[in-house]
Each structure stands twice: as structure tokens, then as C-alpha cells.
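explain this:
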Amino acid sequence: MNYVYMLRCADGSLYCGWTTDPEARLRAHNSGRGAKYTRSRLPVELVYEEAFEDRHEALSREWHLKRLSHAEKAALIALRSHRCAGSGSDASTGASPEAATGKDRRNSAGPVS
């Protein structure tokens, strides 16, 4: 599996990345072996993740998430947290994650190949 994830840094900023092992990647970030961006903003916490079968899909989703504003990312995180807390499953509602931001960036940026 391939995962796209977001971390909340100690300064309140959000970092987006992809990995095949979210827990190991979180440990790497918190030990200072992660991205240069997070090294000076420790500790970080995992606040969002999405799983994909295909690496290309995960990288495409990461690209789109990085183009969201901080407020749009926060809304997406809140929606995901609400879904998890309310039902124990992210797939329990028909709403897409993009609905939380009011924008479907995948369509606005053109086709993803």
C-alpha cells in the first residue's frame, strides 16, 4: 500500500508527504531523520492519511493536497477526524474528502495521467 499523510508540526503548520509505512515515517520525522521542513518543527503528529494501491495515485493525491490552503487542509483533517470518531470507518458517508474544502482540485487542475 501507498499512503499520503499530513503531519501537524509543533508550530501548527502542516506537512504533506507519501510513504509505504506511515508509522515508520512518523518515527523517522520525530527522530529528526524525516524531511528537512519538519526537523526544526518537532514534535510532529500524524493527523491525516489516505491509502492507495498504486504509487502513482498516491503521488498524484499528494500533489493535489499540497496545493490546498492551510484552511482547506484543516477542513479535510476535521472531516476525516469526524468520520473516524463517528463511525469507526472513513467510508461510511458518501461525501468525498474534497467536499470538506468546497473544491475538487483534481478536476480544476485538469486530467491526471
User: Anything to note?
Assistant: The helical segments are 22-30, 36-39, 55-66, 70-87, 105-108.
